[in-house]
Amino acid sequence: MKTIIEPFRIKSVEPIRMTTRAERQRLLKAADYNLFSLASDDVLIDLLTDSGTSAMSARQWGAVMQGDESYAGSPSFTRFEKAVRNLMPFRFIIPTHQGRAAEAILFHLLGGKGRVIPSNTHFDTTRGNIEGSGAEAHDLVIEEGKDPANLHPFKGNMDLERLASFLAEHGDAVPCVMLTVTNNAGGGQPVSLENIRAVAALAKRFGKPFIIDGCRFAENAWFIKKREKGQEGRSIVEIVRDMFRDADGMTMSAKKDAFANIGGWLALNDPDLAEKARTRLIQTEGFPTYGGLAGRDLDAIAVGLEEIVDEDYLAYRIRTNEYIGERLIALGVPIVQPTGGHAVFIDARRWLAHVPPLAYPGHALAVALYEHGGIRSCEIGTVMFGRHPDGSESPAPMDLVRLAMPRRVYTQSHADYIVETFEEVAREKDSLAGFRIAWEPPMMRHFTAKFAPLSRGAKG
Ligand code: F0G
Fold first, then answer.
1. Ligand 1 in contact with 184 (CB < 6 A)?
2. Which is nearest to 308 in space by CA: 275, 342, 283?
C-alpha cells in the first residue's frame, strides 16, 4: 500500500478549540507578538516542540498505575534500568527529571574554566550548562550540515578532520567528546553509524570519554537503516545498540524518544565518575533510584522505550515530516533538506527575502502561521541567537522556523492543514514587514521579549 497510516487507534482525545483569524490577531497583540506568551488553548496545532508533548499509549498509562513510589529501591527503577540497558548497554544509569538535569550533573563534573568541549552541534541547554560551568562549547558539524539545500544523507555528522585537529590542539583542556543524535540544532539531521564509530575511535585515541546526547536515538537509527549501506537488513534495536556500543556515556531527555512527558537520564561506564554523579544527583535531583522523577514516570519511560523502536511507528513518524516537506517544496517554500526526524525547518530568510535579518524574518513567519492557521512554531534565528553578551546584535547564521512534530499526536489531516496554512501565507507573504523588539531581558530573550510589528518599508 502506498499510504502510510498512523499505526494506532485513538482511544482518548483532547478537543482543539477553534479560533478565527480576527480572534488570533487580537490574541497576538495581547501577547506582544511573542508566541511563548500565548495560552496553549488558543493554539490549534502546537508545533512549538516535540519535547514532552508525546501521546502516551494505553500500555504506558497502565504502567503508570503500577508505578511504585518507594523512596529507595523501587521496582519501577529496576524496570526503567532494564529497559534502558536493553538498548544502551551502559554500566551505570542515573535517572534525572529531564535532559538538561543530566547535562548539569555531567558538566558540573567535567566542565569548568579553561575546558573546551566539542560536539557536532551542542543543543542550547547543553551549551548553557557547559558555558555556565565556565567551559567553552564548540560545534564541529560537517560543512554540508550548514547548508539548508545540501542533500547529504547524514548532515549531522561530525567533521572528523576538524575534531582530530581540535583534540590535538587542545589536549588536556578537553574533558570529553560529545555527539548529538539526531542533530536538533542543525535541523534534526542524523549521524551515520560510521561517523559515530569514527568519533568514538578518535576520542579513544586521545584518551577522552565519548558521550552521546541520545535524545532522538530511534529516529537516528531509522535514518541509518534507510540510508547507510549495509544497515538496511538490520533491526532498529541492533542498530541502536551499535550506536551506543563504543560510547562511554550518554545524556538523555526521555521527553523525546521515550514517549514520556517528563524524564531523562545520565549513563556512564566509569565507576568513579558515576559515583560523583550520583552524589551530585542526591544534592540536586533525588535519590539514585528515582532521580527527580516519580516511580510512575520511570515506568512510563520503560514502556516508551519498548514502543519507540517499533518500525511501523518510525516509518509513520519520519514520513509525516517528509510529506509536509515535499508539499512545502512543491509550494516553493525553501526548507532544510532532507527533512529532519522530528521537525521541518523553514528557511525564512530565503522565503521572506524582503525582510532583513534584523527585522526577524523567522519571527515574522512564525507570527503569520499563527495568525493564518493558529499554528504555533518556533523561530530559530536572529531573535534566538542575535543578541550577544557584550550587548551587540547581529544576524544569526540562519533564520529558520521549526515545525516540531509531537509524537503520535497529530494525523494526516493536521499535516494537510499545515500545508494549507502555508498556501495562504504564501499569497500574502510579500506584505509581511517584520518586527522590532520593544523590550527584551538581558538573556534568552526569545522566551519573553515583546515585539512590535513594523510597517512595510520601515527598517529593522
Ligand atoms: N539535547 C537535545 C538535543 C535537545 O533537543 C534537548 C531539548 C535537550 C538536550 C534538553 O532536554 O528539554 O529534557 O531538558 N530539546 C527541546 C526542544 C526543549 O524543543 O528541542 P530537556
1. yes
2. 342
The answer, yes or no, to whether any atom of ligand 1 lies below 6 A from the CB of 264, is yes
SS3 51: coil
Q: List pLDDT tens digits, range 100-136.
A: 999 999 999 999 999 999 999 999 899 999 999 999 9
Handedness of CA 53, 57, 58, 62 (dihedral sign): negative
Burial class for 346, CB neighbours closer than 10 Å (0-12, 13-18, 19+): buried
Whole-angstrom distance, CA of residue 220 vs CA of residue 342: 10
Contact 336, 329 (CB under 8 A): no
Q: pLDDT per residue over 389-415, tens digit each?
A: 889 999 998 999 999 999 999 999 999
1 Cα: distance to centroid of ligand 1 (angstroms): 35
Q: How far is the CA of 191 from the centre of ligand 1 (A)?
A: 17
Q: Are 50 and 345 in contact (CB under 8 A)?
A: no
pLDDT band at 388 (very low <50, low <70, confident <90, very high): confident
The answer, yes or no, to whether any atom of ligand 1 lies below 6 A from the CB of 97, is no
Using pLDDT thresholds of 50, 70 and 90, give the confidence band for residue 458. low
Residue carrying the nine cell digits 537516528: 220
Average pLDDT over residues 173-194: 96
Mutation choice for ligand 1 from 36, 121, 123, CB with most ligand atoms inside 8 A = 123
Smallest CA-to-CA distance from 432 within 385, 362, 379 is with 362
Alpha-carbon distance 80 to 458, whole Å?
56
Domains and CATH numbers, the chain: 21-50+310-453 (3.90.1150.10), 58-307 (3.40.640.10)
The pLDDT of residue 457: 56
Contact (Cβ atoms closer than 8 angstroms) between residue 425 and residue 372: yes
Say if residue 231's pLDDT is above 80: yes
Question: How confident is the model over 243-256, as a mean pLDDT?
Answer: 98
